[in-house]
Amino acid sequence: MKCICYCGLMLLFISYLIGQSFFVQSLRGARVLVTGASKGIGEQLAYHYAHFGAQIVITARREQALQQVAEKCLSLGAQKALYITADMSSDSDPDKVVDFAVEKLGGLDYLVLNHIGSSLFSMWQGDVEHTKWLMQVNFFSYIQMAWRALPSLEQSKGSLVIVSSLLGKSTSPFTAPYCSTKSALNGFFGSLYHELAMKKSNVSLSLCTLGLIDTESAMEKVRGVTKLPAYPATDAALNIVMTGATRQLELYYPWYTYVMVVTKDWFPSVTNYFIQNSYN
C-alpha cells in the first residue's frame, strides 16, 4: 500500500512539473490535425486547441457533427477550423486526411491520433473478421497517417500524439479485440520513438495511456457493469494537449493508470484479482 501511494504521489509531482512548463502561447497559430473529433475525447481536444488559438483540421465519419464542432471551435478562438469526413477502415482515407490538412494549413505542427472503431463489450465469440476490421481502424490507419505526416512534422519540429489506453498495457475481460489494437499501438509507436531519437529526428512522440473516461460511447458499455470511476473527457483532453505541447514521451491519466501498470509486473496475481473483481 505504501508503494502504491508513493507511485501516486510521484506521478502527481511529475504532472505538476509538466503543467508548470506548459506555455499557452506555444499553441497559438499551431497547425493541428485531430482525428475522431466528432464526439468524446477528440471533440474536447478540438475545443482545447481552439481555446489556445490553434489552426485546426478535424476528421471523423459524421459530417454534420464535424460541422458543429468546427463552428464551436471558431467561436472559442481557433484561427482556422476545417473538417473532412473520412472512414479509417478505408485504405485511402487516412492518407487523404493528412494531405488535406497539410494543404489547407500549409503544414502540420501536431498530429493527434485519437479515433477508434466500435467494438462490443462482451466475451469474445471468435469473430476474427471484426478483429481484423478493428485492427485496421485502431492500428493500421494510425501508422499510415503517422508515416504520411512525418515529412511535414520534420519540417516544423512537430509532435506526434498517440491516444492509447490502459487496456493496451494491462488487459481486461470483455475487450479482447480492443486490447489487441491498443497493445499494437504501444508496441509500434514505442519502437518508433527509439528510431526517431536514434536518428535525431525533429519530431517528438507522445504516448497517452488513458483509463476509463466518461465519453458517451464508453459509458453506454460499462454503466452499471464496472466499479471503476470514470474521469472527465475534457480533463483527459487537456492533459493530452499539454503532453504533446511539452513534448513528453508518456502521459498516464488518471493517476491510477500508472499504478496499475507498475503493480501488474510487481504483483500480477493481485492485479488480476482486482481486474476480475472490478465488474458487477
TrEMBL record:
This is Hydroxysteroid (11-beta) dehydrogenase 1-like a. Belongs to the short-chain dehydrogenases/reductases (SDR) family. Transmembrane segments: none annotated. One of its GO terms (molecular function) is oxidoreductase activity. SUPFAM superfamilies: NAD(P)-binding Rossmann-fold domains (SSF51735). InterPro entries: 11-beta-HSD, NAD(P)-bd_dom_sf, SDR_fam. Pfam families: adh_short.
